[in-house]
Amino acid sequence: MSHHLSKPPFRCVSARPVTVALAVVMASPVQAQLMPLSNVLQLAQRCFDGDSPSSCQIVLDRAEQLQRSAAEREFYPCQTFLLGLQADVIMQQLGHGRADRAQADLQTIARGCTGL
Fold it and tell me: What is the number of structural domains in the chain?
């Protein structure tokens, strides 16, 4: 009989294949979950219109994913446009938005990120 605070005897712990597979999948970058650019730009329009404050946060998150994807592809002009979009959204959230100019930038982003 051993004390309840004593160390248990050494046992080899084996990982189950499902656990290992899940860990590998979760550690991999997830490209399949990228929201299409057109959807991000539609949400950005709603954000700049002030209709949906929650859309601003979604745009920030999705634009971050897209700009990282653009960087991985070495599509730097598009990455720059997406970083600008993120800045515009943050300014909108802070109440210092320049919605008219930011909305015009959405068309530039759509043209500059064709193929992303």
Answer: 1
> Who's near 40: CB < 8 A, 6+ residues apart?
59, 62, 63, 66, 85
Write down the H helix ranges in 50-98. Answer: 53-72, 76-93
In terms of Cα–Cα distance, which of 33, 107, 99 is closest to 66?
33
pTM (2 d.p.): 0.70
Q: Is 100 among the domain residues?
A: yes
* Any domain includes 26: no
More confident residue, 98 or 66: 66
Can you give the residue range of the structural domain that contains 71? 37-112
Q: Would you say residue 46 lies in a domain?
A: yes
For residue 35, report the phi and psi dihedrals to the nearest 5 degrees: -80, 135
